[in-house]
Amino acid sequence: MSRRLVVLDVDSTLIENEVIELLADVAGTRALVADVTERAMRGELDFAQSLRERVATLAGISVTTFDAVRAQVKVTSGVPELIAAVHAGGGRVCVVSGGFHEILDPLAHELVLDDWKANRLEVADGVLTGRVEGPIIDAQAKADWLTTWAADGGFDVADTVAIGDGANDLKMMAIAGTSIAFDAKPIVAEAADYAISTRDMREAIGIIGL
């Protein structure tokens, strides 16, 4: 059995939530943000543009809200079991997110992920500015990180697995040896090698062959 590198999306894949919507609840902009998120997931909007548009609505939120948002995050059923199975086979599990390090970092440590990348929210004087700091993690960045992690870990591309649910995951899914659409938008389910319709990541264990 080959070692596997498994790379997962975060929002609505690794976790049940869309973190930017939880942040928008605090800002009172949930309806606006949810609409933009949905359009981006369907591939109707450029991700970087849509992210900037959504983050702009968060301007003025205190960084003290991060703890409350983290407390609402729920890990998707079967994720710990998938991670344990990959690690038992000598593989690695990484995640790459269009979401935010501020929420992801503690969760990544808790789940014992091997590496993770996400966006960073710009903060000034303890509040969000409404801007993203540094390069945006978009579809191309997700694909690039899968390639980088494969090279760094000595994995053949054939032994890489990409799991996601939105249009922003299509590029990394296209280059992975195995692509799995997880409770995904139709455009993603049609493009993937496999599609899981139930929200239980244990199903991926059998697909991967662990």
Structural account:
This protein is of the alpha/beta class and 210 residues long. It has a single domain, classed as HAD superfamily/HAD-like (Rossmann fold, 3-Layer(aba) Sandwich), CATH 3.40.50.1000. 47% of the residues lie in helices and 20% in strands. It has a seven-stranded mixed sheet with strand order 4-3-2-1-5-6-7, with helices on both faces. The model has no long low-confidence stretch (mean pLDDT 94).
Quick description:
The protein has 210 residues and is of the alpha/beta class.
> Beta fraction of the residues?
15-25%
Largest sheet: 7 strands, mixed
CATH topology: Rossmann fold
Look at the structure and give the CATH class.
Alpha Beta
| Relevant CATH superfamily | HAD superfamily/HAD-like
Spatial separation of the terminal alpha carbons: 8 Å
Q: How many domains comprise the coordinates?
A: 1
Taking all Cα atoms into account, the compactness measure Rg is 16 Å
Write out the strand line-up for the largest beta sheet, numbering strands in chain order: 4-3-2-1-5-6-7
Helicity range = 40-55%
Overall average pLDDT:
94
Q: What is the level-2 CATH architecture name? A: 3-Layer(aba) Sandwich
Give the secondary structure arrangement, pairings included.
Blueprint: E1 5-8, H1 10-14, H2 19-27, H3 30-41, H4 47-56, H5 65-72, H6 79-88, E2 92-100, H7 101-111, E3 115-124, E4 127-133, H8 139-153, E5 160-164, H9 170-175, E6 178-182, H10 186-191, E7 194-196, H11 202-208
Parallel strand pairs: 1-2, 1-5, 2-3, 5-6, 6-7
Antiparallel strand pairs: 3-4
Helix pairs in contact: 2-3, 2-5, 3-4, 5-7
